[in-house]
Amino acid sequence: MACGEPVIAYGAGVFFDRTGGARGPCDNARVAARPAIMIGRLSGTLVEKNPPQILLDVQGVAYEVDVPMSTFYNLPVLGERVTLFTHLVVREDAHLLFGFGSESERRAFRQLIKISGIGARTALSVLSGLSVAELAQAVTSQESGRLTKIPGIGKKTAERLLLELKDKLGVEMTTAIGVHRAPPVAADVLHALIALGYSDKEAVHAVKQLPDGVAVADGIRQALKVLAKA
Description:
The chain has 230 residues and is an alpha+beta fold. Among the domains are: 104-165, DNA polymerase, domain 1, CATH 1.10.150.20; 185-229. It has helices spanning 25-33, 69-72, 103-112, 120-129, 132-141, 144-148, 155-165, 185-195, 200-208, 216-229; strands spanning 7-10, 14-17, 41-50, 53-58, 61-66, 81-90, 95-100. The chain has a five-stranded antiparallel beta sheet, covered by helices on one side. Helix 8 packs antiparallel against helix 9, helix 8 packs across helix 10 (216-229) and helix 9 packs across helix 10.
């Protein structure tokens, strides 16, 4: 590759040339001087809503961001400020920005696009059809029927999703958090139980028994009592 050929930056410090080939010494020098393209979060004014896309004004720069419907439903009215966790997909013909109202949604999205044959648009459809909690429950119980109701997801794709996401998303019980809401206590309790050695199924069962409004510490104690009686 000649020294004049451009280099595409993708992710944190990962660079590729346009031909997919190895870089030469001149490319290494140029890459070292150029920071990786990373947009992890955007905070700005909501100026347009055209589902699944929104337009976010960040200090005079308007970003087109595609969001799942779970995030879209929780957006404020136009003119209000909003903060989104983002994921940037870099292609030769476009830079596509996806936004999420919670870190758990973005984490689920990133797990989905790691699966062979699942692109960003399909991952967005999954998160539009199911909340993160619902997706996690489907994975834990291996319910392919919940996924096949989503447009573009057939039986084979659903079964592959469930298999690939097992042990990765099955313990992710955080609900799709609205952009102005605090993370649910249930997620902290669930992860604490998993860390203590309980299985996904046991932890989910115990968390379901917790009353609304319980604090994390009390939730863990109550969940342990439920598990002790099981």
